[in-house]
Design goal:
The complex is a heterodimer. Chain A is α+β, with helices and mostly antiparallel strands. Chain A contains eleven helices and four strands, in the order H-H-E-H-H-E-H-H-E-H-E-H-H-H-H. Chain A has two domains: about 180 residues, no CATH class; about 90 residues, Alpha-Beta Plaits, CATH 3.30.70.3040. In chain A, strands 2-3-1-4 form a four-stranded antiparallel sheet. Chain B is of the alpha/beta class. Chain B is built from seven helices and ten strands. Chain B has a six-stranded mixed sheet with strand order 6-7-8-3-9-10, sandwiched between helices. A four-stranded antiparallel sheet of chain B has the order 2-1-4-5, covered by helices on one side. In chain B, helix 3 packs across helix 4, helix 3 runs parallel beside helix 5 and helix 5 runs parallel beside helix 6. The structure holds adenosine-5'-triphosphate and magnesium ion.
Chain lengths: ~300, ~230
């Protein structure tokens, strides 16, 4: 078995520029795939984070807001009872005008917007936590325009833009990854063909001495697998670098702190890294195998 | 050991058959010269024995293998029991002399320690004990051919095929190669050697099979190269 490893090594060295090109293309492709996987993870987590916080807000009209600090008026009581009876709804909380103003003061403590807002401009609301956050629209439709209701807002709709942005980042990354993967596959296939062609006399002699087809071709396969694995390792290193030098600052910075959860080192090394190594090795092996079957005669 | 039954070979690109209804038999341990003018089909016959090609008609037997019908994946096994030597040596250019010989053993899965003891023995037999670490490009023609013979013989083949093994060598070196092949033959290995070398054939007094335009023209035990040619 030593023989095949030696041959593979010789093969990789003989064609150093091609080898580098293969490794780099593979690394970029796998790096993009890894970035896509991290994006999916982040999107899932962001969604979890938001869905536990967001609700459908049923804002009550001025008379109720002004006069009902504990939802004891018949109008408010009936609305609340109807919401609580709905199977789509997990729970309902009442927030009076005073409570809303207090929360507002807490959130924007020390900011100039506080001076502009009076309690009178905030409505009392029924905060509806959905059992199924995706179906808030049905509550909006059902309660909009009802007596005592000023308006109904599904908070999910306001964060939908964020998710669609993250989703398109993910899709673009996967798209690029596929294009790059195609380039990597073609390059690997081409290099193997070239490698096999350069060595055809040698392989012919080996076959005459009684070497099996497998024996003469395994070195080419190993070349491909080494390329795939090295590419995956480089890609993982690239992702770690990207996390440490770019994303960590971005996600903990002013703009996005508490908006998007940070990406942990375990996400990169414990999840994406191994996936990339496996994907890299499998794709390279498959490419090598198919190339040898279809294009390399012996 | 070798048996050809009504073997013909027609290459796709030519109309005249390279071998035309050849029937012959070689016993275990025999030494046979295969002679005939250029293009008479000598190399073709050897190629059929090695399963580099399949006969168009007829049956080729080597030991118990029906060579022409052998499944492709069984071909390596056949070749592992045969040795072959060519006019152009066919050594692996980026392996040393010892590695070239060792290769024939690695292919059949011999363990390292066996290889380490057997290879020097065989190299000594062909008088190349001191050149084990040379590259093929650093050898003379005669030396390269002796390496090729060592490689062919190292796993004790049933049959050794030689296609003009002395074709590129001066008469003296050629005689040396011939002596080596006769020594290998004395260990019981069947040897079939295609050659143009009149002097070697005449002095060996071995069985001579002559081909002419793909047909079997003569089969003499203790023959000479040619009578009136
Ligand atoms: N691969 C091939 N394709 C087509 N024709 C071939 C092929 N190999 C050999 N031939 C033809 O078959 C015939 C026999 O060739 P072969 O090589 O067996 O002759 P030979 O006796 O070995 O000749 P030489 O003494 O010159 O080596 C020749 O006419 C040759 O042109
Ligand atoms: Mg010939």
């Amino acid at each position: 078995m030593l023989f095949v490893w030696r041959e593979a090594l010789v093969g990789l060295r003989r064609n150093l520029t091609m080898t580098l090109a293969m490794v780099i293309t593979t690394a970029i492709s796998l790096g993009l795939l890894g970035a896509g996987l991290l994006a999916v993870r982040t999107i899932d987590r962001t969604e979890d984070l938001y869905y536990s916080l967001i609700a459908v807000q049923v804002a009550l009209d001025e008379p109720t807001s002004a006069e009902d600090p504990d939802c004891s008026s018949p109008l408010c009581r009936d609305l609340r009872a109807e919401l609580e009876a709905d199977p789509l709804v997990a729970s309902v909380d009442y927030e009076s005008r005073e409570a809303a103003f207090a929360r507002f003061q807490r959130i924007y403590a020390g900011q100039s917007i506080l001076q502009l807002v009076r309690p009178q401009s905030l409505p009392a609301t029924l905060r509806v936590t959905m059992a199924d956050p995706l179906r808030g629209g049905e509550i909006v439709d059902r309660f909009t325009g009802r007596p005592g209701v000023r308006n109904v807002v599904d908070q999910r709709a306001t964060v939908a833009d964020l998710f669609s942005f993250l989703g398109s980042v993910r899709n673009a990354t996967f798209g690029l990854a596929i294009v790059q993967a195609l380039a990597a596959v073609l390059l690997i296939s081409n290099t193997i063909q070239l490698s096999a062609f350069t060595r055809r006399t040698e392989v012919g002699i080996m076959r005459l001495v009684g070497a099996t087809r497998w024996y003469t071709q395994v070195p080419f396969l190993i070349e491909a697998v080494v390329t795939g694995v090295v590419g995956a390792v480089l890609a993982t290193a690239g992702l770690v670098a990207g996390k440490v030098f770019f994303l960590d600052n971005l996600l903990s910075g002013r703009l996005l702190a508490n908006t998007i959860p940070p990406i942990g080192m375990t996400d990169v090394l414990g999840y994406v890294g191994p996936v990339l190594v496996v994907v890299g090795a499998v794709i390279a092996t498959a490419t090598g195998y198919v190339t040898l079957r279809l294009y390399v005669r012996s | 050991m070798i048996r050809l039954e009504n073997v013909s070979k027609v290459y796709a690109t030519s109309t005249r058959p390279a071998l035309d209804d050849v029937t012959m038999d070689v016993e275990r341990g025999e030494f046979v010269f295969l002679i005939g003018p250029s293009g008479s089909g000598k190399s073709t016959l050897l190629r059929l024995l090695l399963r580099e090609d399949v006969p168009s008609r007829g049956t080729v037997w080597v030991a118990n293998w029906n060579v022409g019908r052998l499944a492709r994946r069984r071909v390596p096994r056949l070749r592992q029991r045969m040795g072959c030597v060519f006019q152009d040596f066919r050594l692996l250019p980026n392996k040393t002399v010892a590695e070239n010989v060792a290769f024939a053993l690695e292919v059949i899965g011999k363990p390292r320690h066996t290889i380490r003891t057997v290879v020097p023995e065989v190299l000594d037999m062909v008088d190349l004990g001191g050149k084990a670490d040379r590259m093929p490009s650093e050898l003379s023609g005669g030396e390269a051919q002796r390496v090729a013979i060592a490689r062919a013989f190292v796993n004790r083949p049933l049959v050794l095929l030689a296609d003009e093994p002395t074709g590129n060598l001066d008469p003296e070196t050629a005689t040396g190669i011939m002596t080596l092949l006769e020594r290998i033959n004395r260990t019981g290995t069947t040897v079939l050697m295609a050659t143009h070398d009149r002097q070697i054939v005449d002095s060996a007094r071995r069985r001579v099979v002559e081909l002419s335009s793909g047909r079997l023209a003569r089969d003499d035990h203790h023959g000479v190269y040619g009578v009136a040619r």
